Queue: 3 jobs
Job 1
Amino acid sequence: MKRINGENFDQLVNQEKGLFVIKFFSPTCGPCKTMDPVFKALNENNSDVNVYEIDTMESPELAAHFGVKGVPYVTFCENREVLYSFTGVTPLADLQFVVDNINDAYFRTHGEFRKEEGAQSKKFEVFVLLLILTFVLLFIFL
């Protein structure tokens, strides 16, 4: 991971041609330390995606520029544009999902990932059916 600060930000970001990730952290932040191995794994698993880090105490102007309200904060960027971001402790699988699906047509059009509705609606339907069945049985036997 490469460290970005106010002095080298423009130089490093202007060299990027594709997707890159910026991790905002504070050295006094416990959850940030928890995320260190996650970002290390993200960096190792995606050799074609540069992962940068910005210390918000060292470069508060960059944190303000990106609208960082809490750390850890991660942004997925391309051509100086923020495509997606997370705040807080985030599992590697969620970060990897963004890397793997960043070029999804739905995401590029809507700015969000398509939600899996099938599994959720089935659970809801089963719950409603069980609730109705319970009331019917109560009505019959009481």
Job 2
Amino acid sequence: MRTCVVTLVAGLATFSVGCTDNGSSAVDRGDHVWKAQTDALEKARQVEQVLHSTARKRDERLEQSQ
């Protein structure tokens, strides 16, 4: 029984230390596990906006020429 209590206390202590906020989070700095993927998604969104804008301008020119 004592072993279970010691293990539980040690686990809770480890968990509480691991979950503390030290003020310099990697996410706050913009660094995280999926940074490359989120950067690629952002770039894709920008390209999508350019493509939509270009298509809209093309459609407007086609309407004006008819």
Job 3
Amino acid sequence: MVRITGRHIQRNMRAVAHAIAQQELEGLKVPESTIADLNRVARGEIGTDEVIRNIYRRSKNVPILVR
């Protein structure tokens, strides 16, 4: 993964918090496991491709709508 600065991590964490809040405003509940993955992305520990794979793996019996 790419090394990122503390300021970038803070910005990324705010973006994750805002994205989660937006989902909640729309009446959706983001699973804790997905939030944990998104926070790991924000810190530069994993990439978004891994988050997507994890979501698909955890949601085998749930239809996922892709636009």
